[in-house]
Amino acid sequence: MDLDDELRVFSGNSNPELTKAICDYLHIHLGRARIGRFPDGEKIVRVDDDVRGRDCFVVQSTCRPVDEHLMELLIFLDCLRRASARRVTAVIPYFGYARQDRKDEGRVPITAKLVANLLATAGADRILAVDLHAQQLQGFFDIPVDHLTGELILARYFEAKRIPDLKVVAPDVGNIKTASRYANFLGADLAIIHKKRLSGKVVVAADLIGHVRDRNVLMCDDIISTGSTVCTAAELVKSEGARSVYVGATHGVFAPGALEALDKAPIDEVVVTDTIPTQEATRQVKKIKVLSAAAMLGEAIRRIHMNESVSIMFQQLTERGKAPKKTIPIGPSSI
Ligand code: R5P
What we know:
The chain contains 11 helices and 14 strands. It is an alpha/beta fold and 335 residues long. The chain folds into 2 domains: 3-148, Rossmann fold, CATH 3.40.50.2020; 151-291, Rossmann fold, CATH 3.40.50.2020.
């Protein structure tokens, strides 16, 4: 079967390098398209490859500038649908607007649902996303969603480091399940921080449930945005006697001020994936390390195209010791 003929993978402007790496993984050429602007600022997408009857994927993270990347993705989907693609999958390594997923006060929107509706209306037949902040976001879509996680890439990295006396710490109660998967995978035990968020930028790491004295701490989160969550959590575990602090998070959103905060915080290493481009972050802050999600996304695209299981890729995370006989390539240590 000739993937290069049947499968088309296109890139929006958010992650050209990641998309190129996905195409390299799949041994196919990057779909040819041009994204331009009219003089008044409106965007236009022109697809140069023949897509009629093809299985098409568009890779676009809705990271900063969020609205521009979102609109570009919607235009791309519309363009492919009108060009008679057989199936169009929106590959969204980082799904912006995911955190506004409920009305927790009066007169506020639920933007995660709004964006889900927009994607389907624009022409997406399927969604392929990574760590959507909350599993239940999948239910916001009436089209199939394949939900990947960066956790296995990060957990394998920390496993290879063989950190002694490891304690996995959930920096807030929302991360307990994530942290317990890491702890299970790494054979470490777990502590939990009770976080209070006072505003979008200000959080207080109020209580630590568990002990970290003389332990090396690994904190895991899905997103680092302002950095407040992991920085305040790091200060708390340090004040409670932790020897060192490592942070693993799938999405390095790094809102303004985050890099300075991470640089100053008592954190030894911050590891993220390339679901969002991080060139500026790694240039500014030496303790930030970036692992690629390209093999994971490439393998998922191949499996979707071939109608093979996607969930089996993550079996190791939940069923350590009962791993599939064949190691499925999703990251550096499995290649
Ligand atoms: C919270 O629910 C999330 O899991 C993250 O902890 C949060 O979004 C991180 O945001 P920040 O870096 O701004 O504290």
